[in-house]
Amino acid sequence: MRSANTGLVLLLLVMVSGCGDMMNDLDPSGGNKLPPVQPGTTGPAVGQNAPDFTLTDVLGNSVTLSTAVTTTALQGVVLYFTMWCPVCDTHMSHMRNSEIPGFPGIRFYAVDYVSGSVADARNAEVSNGYAGSGFTVLADTQQTVLNLYQATMGTTVVIDSSGVIRLNEDFKDGARFHAVLFGLQ
To answer: pTM higher than 0.85, yes or no?
Structure first.
């Protein structure tokens, strides 16, 4: 039995030694390790120009990001990627109740990337209580925009009036999101 325990300890030591400089992992710097973004380039990262797209909203209107961003008196655009789950509902309810009323110069889009058609996206909007909510629901039936922004459920993207991404991350508690929106004013 003792030999089995010794063998297990040795196996664990070998596995842990393969982790390299573990102390760095246990004492993180807090610094951003992502490569710097080149201003003026287009991509999904904060500081890059937002990739342009055209999607159909659930009322059949064509929405082009570059046109929406440059609308007179608009301070920015929010893209929230939803699959209409309870987590998404919590995030969207927070935005509907706490953010949309306080930021009339910002347009809020819910990007539905799970419904297979515009009609299905409209049904999801209505059945989840978001018709007339302040969100314009866009049907990303081919997941084109989802891929352009490297998004997933709950990803929140804030784009300023010049078309530059100011936030692209999963929605958390809303504090950082609110601060970014406030900075657009």
So the answer is: no
